[in-house]
């Protein structure tokens, strides 16, 4: 075969040359990756619980960032915010904002009100208090047991922030450290609580008017924004009823064994055990993620039982 026949053919005309170049260009355009989809914009409506205009917050990944955003909207220091409730301005611990926010939830921020000092005589080992915290350094009273020591002190209320115990400032403490401190107080002695109650509304009319604009937005979504102490927040599906019940039972066990209630901690424990095959694997997982708590063996077995029941359902 003559060698000349293996050479590439030259373009006979300028038109042919442009045609082939155009084909290469079109192929290159078709091979380019599609541009990424625009990030989902998540905007939440918010008010001060004692009454305010409605503001909007977005672009936050943690409780601290959320408080800073709310503070910026209402031109107050972030340290003034005690905690937030979802879809109600009332001090309702069942509606307390935790690590998850429904995408249609309305956020009410409770800010500092009156400071008070209360003397309490510890006549029994148990005070009848359940303590939680806002994830940003403020511990407060989540529940008061009927007939308990604290129940008899009517100036102490659910929702009060505990600022100091016997003059010792406890801002920055986690709720389980505060519970331990109260438990270690000597029996048959007087102690002093420095409390700050959430600011209360004197005129509810402005909030009632503002609240009308949020009807239809309260608790209607099936997705939540999960806040994280490290890393970006993520949008997640609402957990199943079985999972919610199981986490609630774990929270009950936390109160029974440890004297605390913490739905975020209960959720972490459930997540640590849901893919484990036996209680030993679960115990190892707890040590790796929550080793500082030193949970008793009986508690770990009871929690494993709750997770096992949820798996079967």
From TrEMBL:
Disordered: region residues: 14-34
Source superkingdom: Eukaryota
Pfam families registered for this protein in UniProt: GIPC1_GH1 (PF25083), GIPC1_GH2 (PF25082), PDZ (PF00595)
GO molecular function, one term: identical protein binding
Segments forming domain PDZ: 117-197
Compositionally biased spans, kind Basic and acidic residues: 14-27
Family: Belongs to the GIPC family.
Protein name in UniProt: GIPC PDZ domain containing family member 2
Native source species: Moschus moschiferus
